[in-house]
Amino acid sequence: MAPLISIQNVAQKFGTRTIFKNVSFNIEPGEIFAILGGSGCGKSTLLKQIIGLLAPTSGQITVAGHSVADEVEAVRKTIGVMFQSGALFGSMTLLENVALPLAVFTDLPAAARNEVARIKLALVGLGAAAARLPAEISGGMVKRAAIARALALDPPILLLDEPSAGLDPITSAEIDRLILDLRDTLGATFVVVTHELPSILAIAGRCAMLDAKAQGLIALGQPRELQANSTIPMVKAFFNRETPS
Ligand SMILES: Nc1ncnc2c1ncn2[C@@H]1O[C@H](COP(=O)(O)OP(=O)(O)OP(=O)(O)O)[C@@H](O)[C@H]1O
C-alpha cells in the first residue's frame, strides 16, 4: 500500500538558522504516529509543512498522493487539525464550534450542520454538553470538543498538536483511549505531537524523534523497541526518563 503521508529529505531554515534537514519517513494508513522531541526541535514546524502552512526550504511532502507544494487544497481536504491551544471560540457553544467548519466548507443547511456536529460531539463523549460554552467545561472536555471539530469534515487524517498538554494523568489517559477508539471506529490515521511518554507508549504504533542539536531525526520506530534498544543518548534519556549522558 502507498504511504498516506510521505516526507522526503525535508529541511527547514529560518534565515541562516537550520531547524532540521534530511528528514524522511512515511506514515501508513491507520497508524497512530507520534512526533517527539524537546522544545524547539521543529515538531510544530513539521506539522505546518504537512498541512501546507509553511513551505519546506527543501524536500517533498505528499499526502494521500497529493504534493503539498502543488496541490495544497486537495491535501487540506484530507486533514483535520487540532492546534496546541485547542482554540475553541469562547462565545460559541460546543455545537456551534463543531458546526463551524461545516458552515465554512460545505453547502449543508443549518439543520444538517447541527446534526453532523451532534454526531461528532457524541463520538467524543460530549453528546450531553452540546449547549455548553468552552468556559463552562473542563480542560479534558475542551480537548475532546477540539477533536470533534477536527473530525467535522470526516478527514481521513487527524493532526493533533499536544492533545494531552496541561491535563492530569487520568484525563490524559482518557484522551489516549479516545484516540485509540477513533482510530478503530473511523479507521482514521493520527499524527500526534506529544511530550507525554505514557501517551506515546499507550497509543503510538511508531514514532519519529527530532532533536534540535542534531538538526533532524534521531530515531524512527516502535516506542517500546526504541525504549529497549536505542543506543542514542537523547532517545535513551527520553524513553527511560534519564538525564542524557
Ligand atoms: N516563522 C518562524 N520564523 C523564525 N523562527 C521560527 C519560526 N517558526 C518557528 N521558529 C523557530 O523554529 C524552532 C522550532 O519551532 P517549533 O515551534 O517547530 O518547535 P517545537 O518542537 O514545536 O517546540 P515546542 O515543543 O516548544 O512547541 C524554534 O526555535 C522556533 O523559535
TrEMBL record:
It comes from the Bacteria. InterPro entries: AAA+_ATPase, ABC_transporter-like_ATP-bd, P-loop_NTPase. Signal peptide: none annotated. Keywords: ATP-binding, Nucleotide-binding, Transport. Residues 5-239 form the ABC transporter domain. One of its GO terms (molecular function) is ATP binding. This is ABC transporter ATP-binding protein. It comes from Acidocella aquatica.
